Amino acid sequence: METILDVQNLTIEFPTETRVVRAVKDVSFQIQKGESLGIVGESGSGKSTIAFGLFNSVPDPGRISGGKVHFFGGPNFLDIKGETRRKFYWSKISMVFQASQNTLNPLLRICKQVDDIAHAHRLAKNKARAKAFELFDMMHLDGNRVMNSFPHELSGGMKQRVSIGLALLLDPEIIVLDEPTTALDVISQASVLKILNRIRKEREISLIFITHDISVISEVVDSVMVMYAGRVVEQGPAKQVMRYPSHPYTRGLIRSIPPLVGEVDYTKALKGSPVNLNNIPSGCPFQSRCELRIPTCSEIEPPRVQLDNSVEVACHLAKMEATSQG
Ligand SMILES: Nc1ncnc2c1ncn2[C@@H]1O[C@H](COP(=O)(O)OP(=O)(O)OP(=O)(O)O)[C@@H](O)[C@H]1O
Ligand SMILES: [Mg+2]
């Protein structure tokens, strides 16, 4: 299998007046051709920062303080600058930003935005427009109407689908979608998920699907990475992680999914709020919210251990269970 993305020990920091906040710490993952990854975690866990890190475009004052990003077995992308980097972006990899429905240019009709992308990448305008029609059709959008509309004339769900269509315009091999369904009602959400699955199958494209909503993740990805306080706490095949979550945080996230029928059982839901990145205690960052914590949790940060089902987890209890079984 061809590895199309290899991320090793990505670490990203934001200096503040008093200290340096490590928003992403030692994140590593690989994606094989056609495979998709979900990144899940609560607000502030570092999901969007990872996405920006992949493209070496972390917003100021952030900086990548460590790690490597290799696309298609090439050199470290974090060392590549200027025009080469810009060309690579969109044509090989592309990103649909968080709240991307608001990142469309409000002053330009969609067709002009298509022309701009074509111009920037020296693609014939008519070819780009024909391609956009095809993609919008695939997104169940009326191409004529959409192309001649300003963004404010489209609904949120339509704008989200337009953003995904534009990101696919240059046939990228990987597309990063940051919270693509979060601002949508359930019907539009289901429609976007269905479209993403179709794109995955028909175009053999890889998705990196970022969301705080673990309930949608298993529908579109092969593997999942659960983030807490900038660290990966659990990582592995999505089906395994969803069926047999090993980290108490993952279990809490899954238990917090409201049931389709009946009442929400708040006693099972995840309690407390995410740890303050300015003040992470020593040991496990999740300790203050963990009902299973043991004294070691406040002393030593849990190392990652590989379980039998190909899942990796950073929890002292999982390590003990793995050791006692092995
Ligand atoms: N521009 C910035 N300046 C300072 N700190 C930042 C900045 N952007 C992010 N951070 C820090 O990085 C952390 C992670 O932010 P990030 O946006 O990656 O989280 P997220 O998981 O995408 O959250 P959400 O689900 O709300 O989108 C934040 O909690 C914050 O401490
Ligand atoms: Mg985000």
From TrEMBL:
Entry-linked CDD domains: ABC_NikE_OppD_transporters
UniProt entry keywords in alphabetical sequence: ATP-binding, Nucleotide-binding, Transport
InterPro entries according to UniProt: AAA+_ATPase, ABC_transporter-like_ATP-bd, ABC_transporter-like_CS, Oligopep_ABC_C, P-loop_NTPase
Domain ABC transporter: 5-254
Keyword Signal listed: no
Domain of life: Bacteria
GO molecular function, one term: ATP binding
SMART domains xrefs: AAA
Homology family: Belongs to the ABC transporter superfamily.
UniProt name for this protein: ABC transporter ATP-binding protein
Species assigned in the record: Alicyclobacillus fastidiosus
